[in-house]
Amino acid sequence: MVDKKLAEYLNKAIGMELQVAIQYMWQHIIARGLKSAEISDKLRKIAVEEMQHTERLAERLDYLGGTPTTQPEKITVGLELKKMMELDAKAESDTIKFYKEALDYCEKLKDPVSKRLFEDLLVDEEGHHNFFETMLEGN
Ligand SMILES: [Fe+2]
Ligand SMILES: [Fe+2]
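^ thats the input. predicted complex w/ fe (ii) ion below
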């Protein structure tokens, strides 16, 4: 049976990924404004990556014998581009902080595969965070 706390980490991660997958896809759809074409395309691309992250986390939890949640964390779309970028930069920095905590726990648990999964996702999340922060510069 899966370690209870690891299952909690994986399910919280799944909820966070579902949140941003929906959040970014909806922002892609409603984005308006001067920079919206560039940002809108990128939001769609990142939304798809977040859904792929959801899949990988859910596959891992299923393999370990747990049940993946279907519930996203609170979705915050925002109305104008700058606000969206602020919400998204915050979502990514919260995720980065949480994944670092999760991978420390995997280390303690001696579960290198789950640890590597969180490490892999962390690389992508730092890339996303960098994109949102870059969009906020000069605004
Ligand atoms: Fe992600
Ligand atoms: Fe991300």
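The first helix runs from residue 4 to 30.
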